[in-house]
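#struct-pred

JT: dropping the chains for the assembly here, can someone run the whole complex?
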Amino acid sequence: MSLALELTWSRPDFQLAVACEFPDSGISALFGRSGAGKTTLLRCIAGLERAPRGWIRFNGELWQDEHHFVLAHRRPLGYVFQESSLFAHLDARGNLEYGLRRIPPARRRIGFDQAVQLMGLESLLAHRSGELSGGQRQRVAIARALLTSPQLLLLDEPLSNLDLASRAEILPHLERLHDQLSIPIVYVSHEISEVMRIADHIALLESGSVRAAGPIHDLLTRPDLPLAHLEEAGSIFEGVIAQHDEPYHLSYVAIAGGKLAISQRDAPVGQPVRVRIDARDVSLALTPAERSSITNILPARVIDVTNDRDPAQRLVRVDVGGCPLLARITLRSVAQLAIAPGVQLYAQVKSVALME
Amino acid sequence: MSAGFYSPDDLVALWISLKLAATTAVLLMLLCTPLAWWLAMTRSRLRVLGEAITALPLVLPPTVLGFYLLLFLGPHGWGGRLMQSLGMQPLAFSFGGLVLGSMLYSLPFVIQPLQSAFQGVGARALEVAATLRASPLDRFFTVAVPLARRGFVTGSVLAFAHTLGEFGVVLMLGGNIPGRTQTASIAIFNHVEAFDYAGAQRLSATLLLACFALLLLVYGANRRAGAITAAT
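RK: done, full complex below.
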């Protein structure tokens, strides 16, 4: 565990009492409603705020306790703010070089050209902040943070002030970041779809404390947590492109518990992909359906059955090849099929979304 | 302009005015930058007191300011006695006294544009710089100062122009000594007293044009800076 902390902060309007650890690789989402304390916690990690009690430790180095406080500019991290925060007196290149120049050459692990290429900024370098779109500004801000060769990257809802098109423009860049650099990232978000797309780990923040933390596959499907009860609740599976079926315009994704057909993708066989299956798109059957239009049928074993928000529905968590899959089905079906923990059945998936 | 246009005494008075305005502006920028920064950034309750004190010369009659400075800096005042005990001449009726008086008198004209410019920089830009490894001093010079440049231009030009036109403080504190403390604005008064309207006219027109040119410079510079800010 690279980042661990325990912080307490009581203010008249707000209470923070957090104890958590973040893994030393991948993207950890700090997920919660607005007002849950996500940004405050991130600012404490960055050293922009000082919670009066507690400690923060990063890679064996003490950043804060009762006697010590490492100032923000001495912490080896990168921070991307929610709103555009480019320096107005510098162009994009000047912004990128601001952090880079403050890192001794021997300690630079990310070069100027690499960051520019990663965030797709080649044609924007001479532009000032006012000449860039919101999405472009955020890409510059991310590259600027990367150029300090941070050992930890903190992103505070970097997409929340952007329109859908700009979000779609940035997400692939964030994914490349995740794939190509080994910097652990803490990503604050209140958008579950964003989290499902890029996060590996979630810390669920509720009114100033961590309700639960763990791998994304587990937390999304845990029936005791609110995530599984969201309208857009679903499961995440990691797989690889296994084969293409040209005549039917399909591609197959191999996951631990079987194979899923998706609309044909222009991706090479063997490429790792993440797929998302919404709970409402899964139905359960005791025998594999024959003469049915459903192509994606996965053998599964019931883990548990829980009440959902709607009294007519139940949330069924099943195990598919060792990974949890959520199905939202009617109470009536649960009764008729006698669905109970341990029952072997088949999960029929109506639609699979490839996260890319 | 030939030297014959102005009388030798007028030229000296103009030179003293220029020297006074330039010295005051430079010293005020040095003094007010940290003071305005503190006023812009502090959350201390002392800020209100600081703002009131630094705005005082705006509303105080210059003669009041000059009078108290005279008492303070004169041979029997605290300041005067302190200077004498250090083996120096008291500042009253000297160029040094004029500089001190002008600095107090023009202080708000530098503090206020600088303070609002620093406030306009915002905490966010400084936080960004901190996460990019800039130390507090580094952040000040590479982020706050460039972003507050309009305040620096406005403050320095206003300090210069305002000192150029100063009368009451200079008269009280300087004592109208030709060649030492007689500035152009006082020379104009002397000309009028002596019914030398042509002489008063020459100096007045000179000051009018100089101040106008300076203000044009400020507004021109701010417009350019504004165009950059608007584009960002």
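JT: nice. The CA atoms of residues 224 and 230 of chain B lie 10 Å apart. The longest helix of chain B spans residues 95-131.
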